[in-house]
Write a structure and sequence with these properties.
Rossmann fold; elongated; 18 helices; 6-stranded mixed β-sheet; binds magnesium ion; binds adenosine-5'-triphosphate
Length: about 475
């Protein structure tokens, strides 16, 4: 059973507190990049922008890039140097978690290091908060790094002889902040990253996960808008790693940071990323939301990469739902409902209230009885227990209701408007990554239990004068 989000806490096992774990918690509801608000230009919503970025190592890096721009392949220029990043362009929105994913050697670290100027680009530009950071003097670059971008490393890089609080406050000390002020700030951050009570410990007294919390705390103390994280959780064991991922998401929601996160772990990428850039041999081969990458991979390489993803936790109701076909309104009455069910050969119809909101489901037998009894009010037989889910619900949450009832699951928005339905066969097909392609026939479930002729007969027998069949 999956623990609901509120039951999953970010408490480190080492604290001795009860920790409830799910093997694979579902991905959080997506937070799509925020569109520009009124009075806010698009550039203000873009935290980091890379434009036609190249990095080559080796003897003649500029020659490598020049030849590649002229159409040479990576292999053809290998005698001149290694093209580590090739023609990378993307924009990271403010408040977004942007994941860069790819196999070892695909260029992820090289790319992220150009974003904060740790590595010079061989060609192309990087802009942070609207300011170019490529080709600027070293002093200016240090300034951008201090104010705008901080980095969390895979191996924590803590100062071993300093306490947790001094490690967290280290950057502030370097900036010249007074002792009292920086310790007060560090204390707040220590609480934020879940290290209350450990301020005076040395790094060696902490577990790996806790050490990485210190690393994260140190980056947060710098108060920059952008955090770069290069395989920051890869050295942690799986449970601690998952806790850190969850806590990162909580922190991100609380602090609104822009996070660029590198990983070669696909499930981590899918769990954390608002968008994912997939790299291969130095190139970005696709940028998209986890669902886009899963459902619409740009090429065979990406498709192969994502084939082992736990689809149930990445795909959402909205991405698999079907249009609602057998739909009636409370005001339409039972005869109309019966006719629609007959036409669609289904034993259930979705009912909408007058205001268009989802009211529930009616079954063919109940409607038939109503029609025979001459009762015109559909409302008495609406089954209120039809399952409805939000468009963001991951498929894993749909499995149980789908097993318990043969009714298609209704997908409704926050105003209870019916957006679509998910019949059981559709759910199974999505989970198994097979097509429900039945030619032009729509999926209609549950199948009719009363014959067409019987419905037609009943409608005829009970027809009011002038009522059409
Ligand atoms: N300083 C360097 N000098 C020469 N070649 C380098 C240097 N840094 C990286 N490379 C090469 O550039 C390519 C990309 O390396 P990079 O470290 O960016 O990959 P990565 O995706 O981060 O891999 P990993 O997952 O192993 O960390 C590799 O072929 C690597 O050997
Ligand atoms: Mg790397």
């Amino acid at each position: 059973m999956i623990a609901p989000a509120h039951a999953r806490n970010g408490v480190e096992a080492g604290h001795g507190l009860p920790v409830r774990h799910s093997a694979h918690p579902t991905r959080r509801p997506s937070r799509r990049p925020r569109p520009a608000c009124r009075g806010e230009s698009v550039t203000e919503t873009i935290a980091v922008k890379a434009d036609r970025l190249y990095k080559a190592f080796g003897r003649r890096p500029h020659e490598v890039v020049k030849k590649m721009k002229a159409g040479s392949s990576r292999d053809e220029v290998s005698s001149l140097g290694t093209a580590a990043v090739i023609d990378a362009s993307f924009e990271v929105h403010r408040g977004e978690i942007f994941v860069v994913m790819g196999l070892s050697g695909s260029g992820k670290s090289t790319l992220i290091r150009m974003l904060n100027g740790l590595l010079d680009a061989t060609s192309g530009t990087v802009t942070v908060a609207g300011q170019p950071i490529t080709g600027i003097p070293a002093a200016q670059l240090r300034d951008v790094r201090r104010k705008n971008i901080s980095m969390v490393f895979q191996h924590f890089a803590l100062l071993p002889h300093r306490s947790v609080i001094d490690n967290v406050a280290y950057g502030l000390e370097v900036q010249g902040m007074g002792r009292e002020e920086r310790l007060a700030k560090a204390r707040t951050i220590i609480r934020l990253v879940g290290l209350d009570g450990w301020a005076d410990s040395l790094p060696s007294e902490l577990s790996g996960g806790m050490q990485q919390r210190v690393g994260l705390g140190r980056a947060l103390a710098a108060d920059t808008d952008v955090l770069l994280m290069d395989e920051a959780f890869s050295a942690l064991d799986p449970l601690i790693r998952r806790e850190m991922q969850e806590q990162l998401i909580e922190l991100q929601a609380e602090l609104g940071k822009t996070i660029i996160f590198i990983t070669h772990d696909l499930n981590e990428a899918m769990f954390l990323g608002d968008r994912i850039a997939v790299m291969r041999d130095g190139r970005i081969v696709q940028i998209g939301t986890p669902e886009e990458i899963l459902t619409d991979p740009a090429n065979d390489y990406v498709a192969q990469f994502v084939q082992d993803v736990d689809r149930a936790r990445v795909l959402t109701a909205a991405s698999v739902m079907e249009p609602v076909r057998a739909v009636v309104t409370t005001t339409g009455g039972p005869r109309a409902a019966l006719r629609i069910m007959r036409d669609f050969q289904t034993s259930a119809a979705f009912v909408l209230n007058r205001d268009g909101s989802f009211a529930g489901v009616v079954r063919d037998r109940d409607v038939l009885k109503l029609v025979k009894a001459g009762d015109a009010d559909l409302r008495s037989i609406i089954l209120g227990d039809a399952v409805s889910v939000s468009p963001d619900a991951p498929l894993v949450e749909l499995v149980e209701p789908s097993v318990e009832s043969d009714l298609a699951i209704a997908v409704v928005d926050e105003k209870k408007r019916l957006l679509g339905v998910i019949p059981r066969v559709t759910l199974l097909a999505a989970l198994g990554n097979v097509s429900t392609n039945t030619g032009d026939l729509p999926v209609i479930e549950p199948a009719a239990t009363i014959s067409v002729s019987m419905i037609t007969e009943t409608l005829r027998e009970t027809a009011l004068e002038g009522a059409a069949l």
